[in-house]
Amino acid sequence: MLEAFKSNRPEVKVIIITGYSDIKTAVEIIKRGAFDYISKPLIPDEVMAVIRKALESASPIAATPPAPGEIPSLQKKKEAADPASGFLVGESPAIREVYRRVKLVAPTDYSVILYGESGTGKEVMARTIHQYSRRQDKPFVALDCGTLSRELAGSELFGHIKGAFTGAFADRTGHFEMANGGTLFLDEVANLSYDIQASLLRVIQERCFRRIGGTREMQLDIRLIIASNENLETAYRQGKFREDLFHRFNEFSLTLPPLRERQTDIPLFVHHFLEQTNAELGKNIQGFEEEVMNIFMQYSWPGNIREMKNVIRRAVLMSASDRITRKCLPWEQLTRQDKSVAAAPRSEGTRIPAPVVLQHDNNLKEAAWRAEWETILSVLKQVKYNKSKAAQLLNIDRKTLYNKLRNLESQGLTPN
């Protein structure tokens, strides 16, 4: 069923629920394209954590060419695709240099740290490294550490046995075990608690581990790729990350350039996501008005490739003609067209002009919405739209921040 489903809808995240929890089944499920699997009996918190990971994870940018002649940049797009991984690479010198280094380090077993802003494609790059490695026919397993609670982190990483703690009604295979022999990608590793970091260090040093509550030592043959949107060396100097763990990880590092530094790649990705969304929605949008392309080229793309994909998907959905017009774009692009203005430093105490108006008569409740919206937007701008950092500054958790953003946008907020 999984293979049949993935062949028809490869972009959809599939989660398998099973009553049979063993390493062979887990590895086979992941190899055949499942995002994750959950063992029965179901624990609501565990189910929600896996669903959140699936929703928040970036979809790989697969290069699926359209029929010839549909898009003027088709030949350029073919030349910009990576033949080994199938991902769209781009033409900019910055990303070409990154891929040159990828091809150097991929055949080794070095641990790799990937730095880059949110949405720059760190998981895509990790998969590319795996595809170029000697482990390419082994499992590639990804785990977003930013979504893990302190209580669930150990179980997700190392697994647990039945009865190890309250709610452990069955054995569970951890991500280390699922990835054994292949590659384990840990995204936002700096979010792991200090005690979990200590356990992680021991596993990396000794190349063996035990499930939580278990006594049997399991040997480990794994390649680690780590991702972070903050510098881990700075983090350990500030006491937020273990120095010994940083040095274990830091055998090789790569920094992925943000989209605003890849101007020549913007048209390629724009047309690529247009093709994908046309296929997804059964539409036939032919292209973009010149004004829209100018906005795209001038925009700073704080959310990088992930943001661009969402913008294009929304625009295609909103479009009532065969071309994307200005009316189809979200308000944040229309209010921040000039990237030089968006990136300019603000003097201390400068108040950001309100970018939105409410569609209802003013009252106290709406004034509270406006104040909260402006505060969140101000903090997001300060941290370049890194939602984890914004949540820390606002003294709320990241899940709460996401909920507030959804709720505020549902209140009828529209661009000026």
From TrEMBL:
Keyword Methyltransferase: no
Record-annotated Sigma-54 factor interaction domain positions: 88-317
Pfam families tied to this protein: AAA_lid_14, HTH_8, Response_reg, Sigma54_activat
Keywords from the named record: ATP-binding, Nucleotide-binding, Transcription, Transcription regulation
Highest rank taxon of the organism: Bacteria
Organism: Compostibacter hankyongensis
Protein name: Sigma-54 dependent transcriptional regulator
Domain (Response regulatory): residue spans on this chain: 1-55
Lineage: Bacteria, Pseudomonadati, Bacteroidota, Chitinophagia, Chitinophagales
